[in-house]
Amino acid sequence: MAILKLYGSKHATSTKRVATILHELKVPFELIEVDAGTQKSPAFLAKQPFGQIPYIEEEDGFVLYETRAICRYIAAKYPASGLIPSEPKAHAIFEQAACTELTNFDPSASKLVIETVLMPMFYGTKADPAVVAEQLAILDKKLDAYDTILGKHRYIAGESLTLADLFHIPYAPLLAAGGIDIMTQKPNVARWYKELVARPSWLACTEGVTSTAAY
To answer: GST N-terminal domain: which residues (predicted)?
Structure first.
């Protein structure tokens, strides 16, 4: 049986985000490892014109890039999962929560992970204390609002898990790898975060994404 092909890097944060959703929905996939040297090749750019990872390709030739778009597409194919609510008001709240992740969490969380984890890992540099302090202060204030939201319901879009929650992976758990324990400092955020990082879908990706032929 042909399975979805995921073009990316097993340790890349964006690839891990897509793979987490694939595991959450038990969708078999093949990881096609992409090295940095091929991302700007004509063959790669024909599928991903920005030369970035990841992208997916299905048996019928359908190609899709942009991480969150890929996740939405996969979830839309499995509506019974509820990862994208269909009822209009629930869907609106989901989109609100998804926008919250993109605009209020990702900017600072990603900068902190890049500064404290990725740059030291790949380039041997030390984190800039000024950058870390600035982004940590911003994220701390954002998480105050998260704590209020999560004090009202179990997940950020209501009582059911959605893509909006899972979009916080992998940056939320990678903060701790950089020595930043901010996700467990506020009670409601801590409860939500600990549940997310314990999900089998994320645990399957922590050491790197690998192909999964069947469940």
So the answer is: 2-82
- Tell me which amino acid residue 5 is: K
What is the set of domains in the chain, with CATH numbers? 4-82 (3.40.30.10), 88-199 (1.20.1050.10)
C-beta of residue 183 within 8 angstroms of C-beta of residue 189: yes
Question: Could you read off the pLDDT of 157-172 as tens digits, one per residue?
Answer: 999 999 999 999 999 9
Q: Is 154 exposed, middle or buried (0-12, 13-18, 19+ CB in 10 A)?
A: middle
Is pLDDT at 2 greater than 70 in this prediction? no
Sign of CA dihedral 146, 149, 150, 155: negative
- Find the angle CA(77)-CA(150)-CA(179) to the nearest 5 degrees: 90
- Identify whether the C-beta of residue 89 lies closer than 8 Å to the C-beta of residue 78: no
DSSP string, 112-134: HHIIIIIHHHHH-PPP-HHHHHH
3-state secondary structure at position 7: strand
The sign of the CA dihedral 59, 60, 61, 65 is negative
Q: Note the pTM of the prediction, 2 decimals.
A: 0.94
